[in-house]
Write a structure and sequence with these properties.
The structure holds two protein chains of two kinds. Chain A is mainly α. Chain A contains two helices and no strands. Chain A has helices at 4-7, 28-53. Classes of the chains: A mainly alpha, B mainly alpha. The A-B interface holds A 1, 4, 8-18, 21-26, 30-31, 34-35, 37-38, 41-42, 44-46, 48-50, 52-58 and B 13-22, 25-26, 28-29, 32, 156, 159, 161-167, 206, 209, 213, 217-226, 293-294, 296-301, 303-304, 352, 459, 461.
């Protein structure tokens, strides 16, 4: 999930798509924001569930 | 059925250089929302009290939603593949949010049929379209790791319940301070109606965000360094394509239907009665060695394994192959179910460990099936084929509870008052189902060439574009 240029996530366009399309660059800030937006609620849910599940081992 | 231009597939074709790691959060934004479907138990008692009705009458709401999930995924699958993920996510959001709004109205006006119509029927359609909306897109963005990609999204469905359960408790406590979430306290109907309204707003925002950022790869796009011929060289994996209409005429589709049905039914066997089951397995006379709070912890642990299994096992399938991993889900599942039935009551750790691994296989089965379909039928209409296969989930959603509840009905007493022996017949029925699923998976062979779409004249993407016109 790092720079598209360095990791090859940007990929290679096929012959049909290379036509008039200008290359783009996905801002890392947008990727980080998107992952944070879904990651924070997921982390909240995980924390709450682990807290509940811990009673199983708490005796 | 045309869609507005801003939702159309053509508007979201990614330009060269687009970073594919923006797609999994788009998929998660949808699946984390619709995963709320597995958190309905949080307000079940409140609805029973509010409508002054039975638990069964309220439980039907969830059953309607799951049946509608399977039906809508099957019916709208081709539409989703043709119009792309943005149109599908937006449509799913509209149905899912409307479902909550109509449901809220039903609760506020004490009309149960409105809750059936809202959450069950309308929301259920949103569930089905939302569930399949990102699948084929993810598979196309991650041809090198389809199991990882679909595992991430479908893990979100498991994660959605993890978020919605505690969040719903906290919101209902906010709207009804007399309810504190502990055993014995029940939130008011008004609090549940307001919860539905709040969730509708939250889900509208989240799902719209997913629809906004999702993109489809351009025709012919492939990740740097990815050689499609390496995929072709793996057993059972095709680079040809089969249409959804042809797929259902193949034995492979119906073998996978049986596999999914058996795997899901077996998982539901435990999930349906998880809390009373662990208490009953360690019952000595009137009392159980497992306290109610510990049983709740067990349910939480199962949720974690359900979610984790979706990601871990589906990702693993990229390395060991789809057929072998289902042999593990079903074959090891058989052994674990036998251990659970025969040794499960001898020690808590044996019971907890075997049940947790079984549930991780249950989640893994859901998450790996899209990649298995891609391997056998190609990417052309994999979303539609997946949608049709999800009718197995609907069928399992009916069969699983019927089996476990039917067996327990024959015992004297209710779950929470039984002993381990009362559960054994149901567990051995699950073993039988897993054996059937194991054999079905063993019989899966590559799809015959006669079902493949012609490749010379048109590429799949061109065909899809033609279909839109």
């Amino acid at each position: 999930m790092s720079s598209s240029a360095s990791t090859g996530n940007a990929g290679t366009a096929g012959p049909a798509s290379t036509g008039n399309q200008q290359p783009t660059h996905t801002p890392m800030g947008l990727i980080a924001f998107a992952w944070t937006l879904v990651g924070v609620p997921l982390a909240y849910g995980l924390y709450q569930t682990v807290k509940t599940a811990s009673s199983l081992f708490g005796g | 059925m045309a869609v507005p231009a801003f939702l159309a597939r053509e508007r979201i074709v990614a330009r060269p250089g687009f970073n594919r790691w923006l797609i999994p959060p788009a998929a998660l934004a949808v699946h984390l929302c619709i995963g709320q479907a597995y958190a309905t138990s949080v307000y079940k008692s409140a609805l029973v009290e509010h409508f002054d009705t039975s638990l069964t009458a309220i439980g039907i709401i969830f059953s309607i939603a799951i049946v509608m999930l399977g039906l809508s995924a099957a019916v709208f699958g081709k539409w989703v593949d043709r119009n792309g993920p943005r149109a599908a996510m937006a449509t799913s959001a509209a149905f899912w949010v409307t479902g909550f709004l109509v449901g809220s109205l039903g609760i506020a006006t004490e009309q149960l049929w409105l809750l059936y119509l809202g959450y069950g029927v309308i929301g259920g359609i949103g569930l089905g379209i939302g569930y399949i909306s990102p699948v084929s897109t993810l598979i196309k963005w991650f041809p090198d790791r389809p199991g990882l990609a679909t595992g991430m999204a479908i893990m979100g469905f498991g994660g959605g319940a993890l978020i919605a359960s505690p969040l719903s408790r906290q919101l209902m406590n906010f709207y009804d301070p007399d309810y504190d979430g502990t055993a014995g306290t029940v939130p008011s109907g008004e609090a549940v109606a307001l919860l539905f309204l709040t969730l509708a707003v939250l889900y509208a925002v989240f799902m719209s965000f997913g629809a906004l950022i999702v993109r489809v790869p351009a025709d012919g796009w492939k990740p740097d360094g990815f050689d499609p011929s390496t995929v072709k060289s793996k057993a059972l994996v095709t680079t040809d394509n089969v249409s959804a209409d042809n797929a259902i005429k193949t034995p492979q589709f119906w073998l996978l239907w049986i596999v999914l049905f058996c795997n899901v039914t077996a998982g539901i066997g435990i999930l349906e009665q998880a809390a009373p089951m662990i208490q009953d397995f360690f019952r000595d006379g009137e009392t159980s060695a497992v306290a109610a709070a510990t049983a709740a912890g067990f349910v939480g642990l199962l949720s974690l394994f359900n979610m984790g299994g979706r990601f871990v096992w589906s990702s693993t399938s990229d390395y060991i192959g789809r057929k072998p991993i289902y042999m593990i889900y079903l074959g090891v599942g058989i052994v674990l179910y036998i251990v659970l039935a025969t040794l499960g009551s001898t020690a808590t750790w044996i019971f907890v460990l075997t049940a947790a691994v079984i549930i991780s296989f249950y989640g893994g089965g859901f998450a790996t099936i899209p990649a298995y379909l891609r391997d056998l039928f190609g990417t052309f209409q994999v979303g539609a084929i997946h949608g049709r296969l999800l009718t197995a989930w609907s069928a399992a959603g009916i069969a699983g509870p019927l089996i476990i509840n039917g067996v327990l009905d024959m015992a004297e007493g209710e779950p929470g008052e039984l002993v381990a022996g009362d559960y054994r017949p149901a567990l051995f029925i699950m073993v039988g189902l897993l054996v059937i699923g194991f054999i079905a998976n063993l019989l899966v062979k590559p799809v015959a060439d006669k079902w493949h779409e012609p490749t010379a004249a048109q590429s799949p993407a061109t065909k899809e574009a033609s279909a839109v016109r």
